Amino acid sequence: MEAYTIKVEESRPATGDRPSAGPVYRCIYAKDGLLDPPSGIESPWEFFSGSVKRYPQNQMLGRREVSDGQVGQYVWQTYEEVYNKAIKIGSAMRGRGVNPGDRCGIYGINCPEWVTAMEACISQGICYVPLYDTLGANAVEFIINHAEISTVFVQENKIQSMLVCLPRCVAHLKTIISFGKVADAQKQEAEQVGVSCFSWEDFLSSVNSNCKLPQVRKDDICTIMYTSGTTGDPKGVILTNRVVVTQVINTEQLILETDNVVTEEDTYFSFLPLAHIFDQIIENYCIYKGASIGYWQGDVRCLIEDIQQLKPTLFCGVPRVYDRIYTGVKQKISAGGLLSRKLFQIAYEHKLSNLKRGVRQDMASPFFDRLVFNKIKQVLGGRVRMMLSGAAPLPKHVEEFLRVTSCSVLIQGYGLTESCAGCFTSIANVYSMVGTVGIPVMTIETRLESVPDMGYDALSPTPRGEICLRGQTLFSGYHKRPDLTDEVFIDGWFHTGDIGELQPDGAMKIIDRKKNIFKLSQGEYIAVENIEIAYSQCPLITSIWVYGNSFESFLVGVAVPEKQALENWAAANHLTGNFVELCKHPKSRKYILEELNNTGRQLQLRGFEMLKAIHLEPIPFDMERDLITPTFKLKRPQLLKYYKDRIDELYQEAKEKKA
């Protein structure tokens, strides 16, 4: 098997309290040294201004305009138009006393104003601080005060929530700029506590002349990205211009090394949060290439409609999104006739066989792509040729299915805010990397460190351990939290908290999370994320949270059923009621519990990893109830708090049945 990494440093034995660590690796594309940022590019501003010079009339930022309550086609601003607005916005901020190095917040869903405000900040050397659209008022208040934000750009319908926390933010916050309009009453309320409030157009026109752009340097702070986290206050991840620029160039080089190319002709569909580093890097890269970026409306019910209207060529998603596409397509196939199902199976197996032999995606089965898989391609508008997945590991069966059926290159990666997005990436057309997050990117070296308490040995024949990173695209530290920085940076290595397994070809597979482990009362260790990944392969559910603790001998869970599947089963078994009522029905709970455990047995879960009771939740886990992060990761303490009474009931039910 071809190796895609090279060893650059030997392994380290255990000494005293320090565990052993495996060899240090980097990818073959960086065999002569890690990628450095190019000379002449001091900040991401040069990416934007360069594209303005090369492609001034190219469509840059687009949204669907609403007229008389009807959503129309995409309306675009050119690179030149966005540039002129960014210069004016930056000059207006400087005119109000915001200086290079100061912090400016951006709060709202993805839209042209978000990126324009970001570019305005970068042009003036102002550090921009994204505020998650779904973190809620308390976290927004915390970040404004912690980062000492003086100016914030706010989505129009978020102004009211800003005003609620405003009295507790006035020590630093002096100016609010709406992405759209602002009501007179809102202006007056802000002015009562000494804060000026502007509409977007008023702020644009508030400057008489553009100020000179300051000298910005690579090591200046570009952004402080607050991670939502699963516990405690958000942590401010400091990313310099050097790190952001290098990551964008790294993205370009990796795409070129794998025989792909992005040009000014491409269109990217933006719906993953811009307040998250993954989408920011992709959009910066698109801007660097002069490509077009079209934004969704912000309503998940209109997501597919927006995609089909835009017809993008580039698409980024998280596993939850791809899993929904997978489930929807599989349901349509199952509902088809015998002949169409048979044709699909023949086409699938033929193309999969070619992919496994190393044939390029676009050459693996052009005939079946046109005859069978083109219908699936149309789900994403018909033009997508490159899909990226990040934020969490993509289940192997979903990745394989989409590689075969989407008529598109699918690249899975792994990254953190602390690594400025991707630190590992799979290689397009290398099938052996399916089910892994690929190899280190060209800016990163990696090693595994043993975790003896969990039984992971980085020096074993199949190396497993905590993924540690070193290189050019790591954060500088947590803002005002040197204690937390010291916890994760040890001997120059950033400890991710994720457990990886090194594959023979050098690819990394994420298998566990260091902290999401606990003992049951009988002493058995539970790696809960592994169990959830296994149960998630049951087609009857869309998501699941598994719970256990050291005082109980078994596990229980909360699952969100797949609505159509449950309703179909209910109809076949003469159960009546709406979806909420079906979720409460004892027969529904018994059926789904049995099917979940059947899935667990098929995937070789051990007896103590099987669920003994389940609650069916009709409402998907959401950010409004603070149950998941903006990247759809479960917030376990919050889930326990929300479902505490139900969890107690599940344990009582299971014990009564056992008795």
UniProtKB/TrEMBL annotation:
AMP-dependent synthetase/ligase domain: which residues?
A: 63-479
Q: Is Ligase tagged as a keyword?
A: yes
- Which key words are in the record? ATP-binding, Fatty acid metabolism, Ligase, Lipid metabolism, Nucleotide-binding
SUPFAM superfamilies, alphabetically?
Answer: Acetyl-CoA synthetase-like
Cite the EC number: 6.2.1.3
One GO cellular component assignment for this chain's record is:
endoplasmic reticulum
Keyword ATP-binding in record: yes
Which terms does the record give in the GO molecular function aspect?
A: 4-coumarate-CoA ligase activity; ATP binding; long-chain fatty acid-CoA ligase activity; trans-cinnamate-CoA ligase activity
Q: Which domain of life is it from?
A: Eukaryota
The main enzyme category here is ligase
CDD domains xrefs? LC-FACS_euk
InterPro entries documented for this protein? AMP-binding_CS (IPR020845), AMP-dep_synth/lig_dom (IPR000873), ANL_N_sf (IPR042099), LC-FACS_euk (IPR045311)
Q: Which reaction does it catalyse?
A: (E)-4-coumarate + ATP + CoA = (E)-4-coumaroyl-CoA + AMP + diphosphate; a long-chain fatty acid + ATP + CoA = a long-chain fatty acyl-CoA + AMP + diphosphate
The entry's function note states: Catalyzes the conversion of long-chain fatty acids to their active form acyl-CoAs for both synthesis of cellular lipids, and degradation via beta-oxidation.
Which family, according to the similarity comment? Belongs to the ATP-dependent AMP-binding enzyme family.
What's the name of the protein? Long-chain-fatty-acid--CoA ligase
Provenance organism = Dioscorea zingiberensis
